[in-house]
Design a protein that fits this description.
Elements: H1 14-29, E1 37-40, E2 45-49, E3 55-62, E4 70-78, H2 87-98, E5 104-108, H3 111-122, H4 127-132, H5 135-142, E6 147-148, H6 150-153, E7 162-166
Parallel strand pairs: 4-5
Antiparallel strand pairs: 1-2, 2-3, 3-4, 5-7, 6-7
Length: 173
């Protein structure tokens, strides 16, 4: 008999998603041979360290009691010299492997994501199209979190923009 894991009672699809996340994570790790050490803490803090042990990327996320299947990203930052190399995806991959039971990812659009969103809106894109154009959406979509939650589609001018994406029930492994 297989030993029980904490997420077994929460979501029956967690094992399949874990395998899919792990597969994508291994593919991403191949792009960083010997250049990084990634540490995942029990409080969903993930950081990437270069060879000199200097932090080059970090993500902080939490799972709140009200919605235990949602991973809320409070902080995600990558050093300028490490941007556009997939490090944000790598950090999210480690977090998802640590918490494979989550079926949605939330967070507010800040910094680069806000700039991209604002530029797309100014160019005439709809709210939904602009959300899908952000790096945050693209990184999540890589792991199957492609469905924008209806709560993210309600937006009033001046509000902070929240992006919550859900996981497709039929993730192809």
């Amino acid at each position: 008999m297989k030993p029980r894991r904490p997420w077994d009672d929460v979501d029956s699809g967690a094992e399949e998603r874990f395998l899919a996340y792990h597969t994508e994570l291994e593919r991403l790790k191949a792009g960083f041979p010997g250049t990084l050490k990634v540490e995942v803490s029990s409080v969903l803090g993930v950081k990437a360290l270069d060879r000199e042990r200097k932090e080059v990327g970090a993500m902080v996320a939490m799972v709140v009691e009200e919605d235990p299947n949602d991973l809320f990203i409070t902080h995600l930052n990558v050093a300028d010299t490490w941007r556009h190399r997939g490090l944000s995806s790598l950090l999210l991959g480690y977090a998802l492997c640590a918490r494979p039971h989550v079926n949605s990812i939330s967070g507010m659009l800040r910094l680069t994501n806000w700039e991209v969103y604002s530029t797309l809106r100014a160019s005439g894109k709809s709210h939904e199209e602009a959300l899908k154009g952000t790096p945050a959406y693209k990184i999540r979509a890589r792991f199957g979190f492609k469905e924008i939650d209806p709560s993210s589609l309600i937006y009033r001018e001046g509000d902070e923009v929240r992006l919550k994406t859900g996981h497709s029930i039929h993730l192809a492994v």
